[in-house]
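Worked Example 4.2. Consider the chain below.
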Amino acid sequence: MREGQDALIRIEVDLNEACFGTEREISVESAVICTKCHGSGCADDVKPQMCQICKGRGETQQVTRSFIGQVMTSRPCANCQGYGSVIANPCRECAGDGRVRARQNISVKVPAGVETGNRIQMTGRGEVGPGGGPAGDLYVEIVQTPHEFLVREGNTLHLALGISMTAAALGTTISVETLDGPMPVVIKPGTQSAATVLIKGKGVTHLRGGGRGDLVVHVEVHTPTKLNKEQEELLAAFAKSRGEKEGESDMQRHDGGFFSKLFGR
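Applying the procedure from the previous section yields the following structure tokens:
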């Protein structure tokens, strides 16, 4: 008997399943024990006979001469294909292989915190070996599908949140969708574009160990592009009340803050 090969199958999980874990029923086509001969490969309860060529060793040896002397080499026995035994009356169901191809349903427990590329090892659920040998392992590889709004980076989740110019200036509270359901995000008055709001413990579950990562909300302030006459006059009056003059800029000395974020230094 020989050990069977390992098998690999890929399954898709969404972000919610990857974060909290799930149980999935999968269908796998594999080599399984022949129920007719119970893995022996023989028909009518006949047992395999020892190969008379290799005397049950499964290999033959050959001695050849070379310039360094005699060299002994071993190779699988051609008579028994390396099994050490031969089947005089093979099973018709499996043709003497001791196994057949069949589809079986397997329940897979996907742990919380998995990500694309992670593999779940299921010992002994791979292919049965020739002659009814021990089965290999089944590896289930995870492929996480993209989320509509949330972007995953390790155990951290990122969410882009667009707000109006007035909401950024005055402040507001906005409900955002998280893996735990709707959650309020407080936008402080005077919030600038590219500001972030950190929500602790609302990211992805740690695969090894307890706790969860964080959710980072990235604020994008949307400047209005289509204004009617009344709105233009209101904004102009607002700028005048703040003492703003047309054409003026507010260039600032490099303090390391903005450029360190932009260029990573």
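The CA atoms of residues 18 and 260 lie 34 Å apart. The chain is about 10% helix and 40% strand. Compare this with Example 4.1 before moving on.
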